[in-house]
Predict the 3D structure of the following.
Amino acid sequence: MNGAPRDLTVDHRATLLDVLREDLGLTGAKKGCDHGQCGACTVLVDGRRANSCLLLAVAQDGAEVITVEGLAAGGELHPVQQAFLDRDAFQCGYCTPGQLCSAVGVFAEAAAGHPSHVTDPARPAGRGPVELTREEIRERLSGNLCRCGAYPNIVAAVEDVTR
C-alpha cells in the first residue's frame, strides 16, 4: 500500500475502496457512485488504474496499490499533482484524487502503446508510445466525471505533463 507492505484481515465481501477509507484511513479515493461509473475511487493497482469500488480487497492480496496519498514522493508532489495546482484543475476537489490517479495510469498506458478509442486504427498496438494529444487525453480520462466542469483545466494540466 503506497510503497509499504500492509498485513490486514478484512471481510471477504469488503471492497478495496471501503478498506482504504475505513480500515486504513486513506480518504483520498472517494465513494461517488459505488458502481464504477464516476471514477472518484480510481487508484493504481500494479501500475494500472482501477475503480476501487469494484474490486474485492481480498483479491488484491500481493498487489501494489497506490492511492493519491502515495503519488507524492520524498516531499515532492508528483508532476501531475503540481500541474493540477498550476492549472487550477479542480473546483470542489471531490473527483481530483481519482482524476490524478487516472492521469498517472494514462501516462503508463500511452507509454506502453495501448490504444484508446480515438487512436488511429492503422497504428499497430504496442509499437511504441501513443502520443497524448488533447483528444487522446479527453478520451482516456472520460471515465472520470467532474460535476463542477473543470475539464478544460484538467486536460490542460495533463497535457502540460506530457511536454
